[in-house]
Amino acid sequence: MKALADLVFDNRFARLGDAFSTAVLPEPLDEPRLVVASPAAMALLDLDPAEADSELFAKLFSGHKLWSDAEPRAMVYAGHQFGVYNPRLGDGRGLLLGEVVNAAGEHWDLHLKGAGQTPYSRMGDGRAVLR
């Protein structure tokens, strides 16, 4: 099992470039606190469950602090919005913090919802899920 600092990142999605995502830093929350952690999700990342008890865990998974290898990105997509095709919609409050590779070679996304405003927030504050 790994410590938080030992997670291995391979940010394949970020390397696709600006046609697929926009670099955005999360807007930190004041005094983030952990409500619940999933032991099953932590196992997928090879992360030691004891890490959830640390203050650093809440800060990293809330976007208050970033891993040095994280590359936060707001994902871009296309679709119809209000009856009109829009070629550049995107995540208005969610960020892909990065992709972690576990010992089995599997890639797992660390995605933060309620991360604050992105270029796709459409006048919102990017926090709706936290109300």
From TrEMBL:
Keywords: ATP-binding, Magnesium, Metal-binding, Nucleotide-binding, Nucleotidyltransferase, Transferase
Entry keyword annotation includes Nucleotidyltransferase: yes
Keyword NADP annotated: no
Pfam families: SelO
Listed cofactors: Mg(2+)
Single Gene Ontology MF annotation: AMPylase activity
Domain of life: Bacteria
Family: Belongs to the SELO family.
PANTHER family per UniProt: PROTEIN ADENYLYLTRANSFERASE SELO, MITOCHONDRIAL
Name of the protein in question: Selenoprotein O
Species name: Aquipseudomonas alcaligenes
